[in-house]
Amino acid sequence: MAERRDKSAPAVASLMEEILYEIKRVVVGQDHFLERVLIALLARGHLLVEGVPGLAKTLTVNTLAEAIQGSFRRIQFTPDLVPADLVGTRIYNQKLAEFNTSLGPVFCNLLLADEINRAPAKVQSALLEVMQERQVTIAGESHPVPNPFVVMATQNPIETEGTYPLPEAQVDRFMMKVLVDYPSEDEEFVIVERVTGTALAASPVATTEQLAALQSRCRELYVDPTLIQFAVRLVTATRNPETVGLGDLSRFITFGASPRASINLIEAGRALAFLRGRDYVLPEDVIDIAPDVIRHRLALSYEALSESISPDHIINQVLRAVPAPEQPLQSHVDIAATR
After folding, report:
1. Where in the chain does DSSP place strands (E)?
2. Can you give the CATH number for the domain in which 247 is found?
3. Are 45 and 172 in contact (CB under 8 A)?
4. In the predicted model, is pLDDT for residue 277 greater than 60?
5. pLDDT tens-digit profile of 120-166?
6. Phi and psi torsions of 144, nearest 5°
7. Which residues have C-beta within 8 Å of that of residue 171, sequence separation ≥ 6?
8. pTM
9. Which of 32, 33, 55, 195 is most exposed, with minimal Cβ within 10 Å?
10. Same domain, 235 and 258
11. Domain end (from 191, 214, 237)
12. Are the beta carbons of 180 and 53 closer than 8 angstroms?
């Protein structure tokens, strides 16, 4: 089994490189953001993206859908949106004297929920079942969404008027929250050149079936038990910082991260190791992904807000206080590969 896995590794790496190359032919810069989008795709997670308009968030998801020959839908969240606009509803057909089910735009591979915090809570909560269960229930009948299925929701950090805070239960269902910043001056020069020049389009380089196979292959990566223990200690330290000598942080944290954070640290860390061409996860994979996985799960106190203490500041303190385990021995990886 180990020999078969080794032979498939170059083909897997080559396919991921082709997908990333096609995206970068259209999207300039944003390497961190692109990597997180691919991690969410491989780990079957959902992404919450915060950034000002015009940073190629929609273009990235649309280009990825073209590269994997998947379906893409964009929903502009507004205050007058209702749940049926997302998941679908039952429509009465007078000619046939019967009800027919009309499925909503969530039935796609890649769903962009643009400015999700502009819709009221009941609309935001309509995404809960489809994000967690990957199915929608209409009139007592369940309808599964296509596979793969990833929700990428965006938030605008500038405008807060007319917005609604996301329910904690929904925020926790996002695997990562990624902060997207402005491009560099050189990157912006290339962006202007491409947009004002000949339009570029991504070529299909994979199929959704191949992507599903990559997701299954990603799940086979070896995770040392000490890394799972490390992830749990990181998350536990956000709830009880005094256990790792950070008692001063307790006044800044109202609620720490949930157990989903521990799970997502391992899932996302495994996908990151997969993208980096390894068959096993290293401590730096978990450390690298930790801010994106934990930042939206921390509920800060008013004291933290008044002193401009950010979730990333707390996460960096925790990462320094919790020692990382030694890297897994290659012999352990070889043993795991033969199972």
Report:
1. 47-50, 72-76, 88-93, 98-103, 110-114, 135-138, 141-144, 150-155, 176-179, 253-255, 299-300
2. 1.10.8.80
3. no
4. yes
5. 888 887 887 788 888 888 877 888 999 889 999 988 776 666 677 77
6. -70, 145
7. 48, 296, 297
8. 0.86
9. 195
10. yes
11. 214
12. no
Residue 327: what pLDDT? 65
Is residue 181 in some structural domain? yes
Q: What is the pLDDT of residue 178?
A: 93
Domain span at residue 189 reads 2-79+109-133+146-214
Residue 100 inside a domain? The answer is no
pLDDT in tens, 217-247: 899 899 999 999 999 999 999 999 999 998 8
**Which residues are registered as beta bridge partners of 150?**
110
For residues 310, 36, 135 and 208, what is the CA-based torsion angle, rounded to 10 degrees?
170
Task: Tell me, yes or no, whether 272 lies in a domain.
Answer: yes
List of residues 6+ apart from 12 with CB closer than 8 A: 214, 217, 274
Residue 12 belongs to some domain of the structure = yes
The residue length of the chain stands at 339
Residue 195 neighbours by CB under 8 Å, 6+ apart: none
DSSP conformational letter for 280: B
Beta bridge partners of 110: 72, 150
CA–CA gap between residue 47 and residue 105 (Å, rounded): 18
User: Which residue from 83, 91, 113, 89 is spatially nearest to 103, judged by alpha carbons?
Assistant: 89
